[in-house]
Amino acid sequence: xxxxxxxxxxxxxxxxxxxxxxTVHYGLDWPQHQYSESGITLSTPKTASPSNISSYGNxxxxxxxxxxxxxxxxxxxxxxxxxxxxxxxxxxxP
Length: 94
Known about the structure:
Distance between the termini: 10 Å
Structural class: mainly beta
Shape: globular
Number of helices: 0
Strand order of the largest sheet: 1-2-3
Oligomer: single chain
């Protein structure tokens, strides 16, 4: 592709502080580029163990670790070592 970007953690303010996205931008130069994204909205307050990411509490009140894993054919996003999103090559075809 002519351009490319992987957003490890993207928060869009109008969606509130507990929604995060993992996004891949690809294809032509902006603004004709394409993108694929997937996100998660966390509930509050924290009511379960960290293995249940959907009830993990307020993202803007505690420290969290965000990461991305890029492997052949797949990209995975994590919050605090828990996978919350993934995308494959098939999802990114023009």
